[in-house]
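Thread: sanity check for a docking pose with magnesium ion

Original post by kr_44:
Hi all, I'm comparing my docking run against an independent structure prediction. Below are the sequence and the ligand SMILES. Could someone generate the full complex and paste the structure tokens? I mainly care about where the ligand ends up relative to the chain.
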Amino acid sequence: MMSSRRPFGVHRRARTPREQPLIARPPAGARPAAPRARRRRPAVIRVHDVSKTYEVGQIKVRALRGVSLRIERGDFVAIMGRSGSGKSTLMNILGCLDAPTSGRYEIDGTDVSQMDEDDLADLRNRKIGFIFQNFNLVARTSAIANVELPLAYAGVGREERRARAADALASMGMANRLRHQPSELSGGQQQRVAVARAIVTNPSLILADEPTGNLDSRSTEDVLAIFARLNAEGRTVVLITHEPDVAAQARRVIRLSDGEIVEDERLLGLRDPLPSARRLKSGHTSAAAHIAETKR
Ligand SMILES: Nc1ncnc2c1ncn2[C@@H]1O[C@H](COP(=O)(O)OP(=O)(O)OP(=O)(O)O)[C@@H](O)[C@H]1O
Ligand SMILES: [Mg+2]
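Reply from moderator J.T.:
Ran it for you. Here is the predicted complex with magnesium ion included:
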């Protein structure tokens, strides 16, 4: 008899059925989840063996020599290297402002070399926000009109343009400077207008070529805090800098030398919170000190 096999003292009790199973299982027919370690974030940028040679008269300058690079969505990458090492050349290629001499570049999985000029302009306008060392604002034009420009290119109507430009400027702490022209603003304020112009189209990729190069330390902190915020919102940030303090704000630091990547260091994972810019500037963090030490 079955009951004779039950050990002493154990009696069958009436069970209340569980509302939820103890172990959640995927419904029948669903595909099993991929193992965690194998899951990779999608790459925003994929550079395959890119070279760039400039020809000036008889002289050939090999600005990039076989650079390969993968940048994941949500990363914050600082590019460092001596003057002339190819940083801006690489940035111009990443931003589709220039084409490589050889090699391939994909943005969000699309091979850029296959796109015509119209599609490229559209891609730049929709996906990429640029920030430059010298701000590149249109002179004798108000802050708000400067920020409206990319929306005008995108064909956004006047009212919406105004509203979105005003919002972007307000988010940069520039709500009370909408009518000021570049010459009536400080360097840090001009750069904040430039950042507002870069983000007004809601791009997923922010490219900045020495954005703090012309700023004092206070304005540098402000601009870095803005980049940290943009990155926390999920935007990918790639910036060129000579300053170890600025690079220490990034999640990953890539070093170029003579047109080649010579170092690629991860400081923080994609989900780690970024250190606050203010702390970085007052007293070096270990990351900043490390970058300063290894600076060539
Ligand atoms: N339009 C161009 N025509 C010819 N040579 C160029 C051009 N642009 C850059 N170069 C050369 O390519 C090399 C890399 O220049 P790049 O501007 O990329 O350097 P960089 O790392 O950005 O330097 P910096 O820190 O001074 O801005 C340099 O030797 C430069 O002289
Ligand atoms: Mg440069």
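Residues 6-11, 278-285 have pLDDT under 50 and may be disordered. Hope that helps with the comparison, let us know if your pose agrees.
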